[in-house]
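Retro notes, structure queue

What went well: the backlog is down to a handful. What didn't: a couple of records were mislabeled last round, so from now on we paste the full input next to the output in the thread. Example, using 3beta-hydroxysteroid 3-dehydrogenase from Microbacterium invictum:
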Amino acid sequence: MARDTWDPTHLPDLHGRRYLVTGSNAGLGFFASLQLAGAGARVIMTGRNPNRLAAARAALLRQVPDADLESLMLDTSNLGSIRAAAATARGRTGLDGVLLNAGIVHPPAQRQTTSDRHELVFATNVLGHYALAGEMLPPLAAARGRMVWLGSMSTSMWQYDPLDPELENGYTPWRAYVQSKVAATALGFEADRRLRSEKVPVASLVAHPGYSIGGRTRGIAGVNEPNRAKRFRDNLQAPIAQSKERGAWVLVRALVDPAAEGGQFWGPSRGMRGAPRPASASKVTRDLDVAARMWHYCEHATRVPWPFEKARKAKRR
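Corresponding output:
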């Protein structure tokens, strides 16, 4: 077996590459953007709050003064916002990758719906990213790029089959979160199968960050500012937890490593923490029936059929 020489602190030269990261204003999205920009990539930072996005952009520039950045307003819970952002992003230069990172980690106690009348967690974590990936498929195909969906180790602990994906009955915050991650992971694998079948040169991968928490993450004004109590609580979990900066290592490797392949699942080497490595996805996320059902549901809920034929033509330009 060949020795793994990947060093997440010294990425390959990414000058000339362009990546879009959802949820760039904090957490994993910010640190993924920071790592990509530090390697020379042009990064489209996105977020739904203009002030927080501006603060994150300024924070990144303090870390990497010559970073090549774009800012784009994007709310993955709002299909209109997705269409508008995608139209803007498509109108610029090529796109080498999309990191589908934004999401709700701590769902509301009571079920809430969006302006599009979808359950908030499923809309934000799943429907929005399904629609965005479809909208961005032609520029990704033109660049022979890839998309990375954000998974979670929770899907191996609670293998909920999302028969009621928007939890019209029996809503609980935890079930809403885990079901959204089951759906996103299954969609990531299903996307790769369909892209291969349609001969579209875009790879789809799934990556999970392990147990990455704010109190184990360095403080950055405007991005990560945990109070002393949170630092204390999170540091008690040091044996099983890691920083969000290290959690982003996995996402970035899945996005840029030339050796990474479509259909793969990536995670920390020790499950909850560690260096980025190929991992094993839970059984429910690899179920073909679950994947087909989620794809059908998302296609009809968002009214965004993926433009495979248009993407095939884009690759020949």
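Agreed that this is the format going forward. Reviewer comment attached to the example: The CA atoms of residues 42 and 68 lie 5 Å apart.
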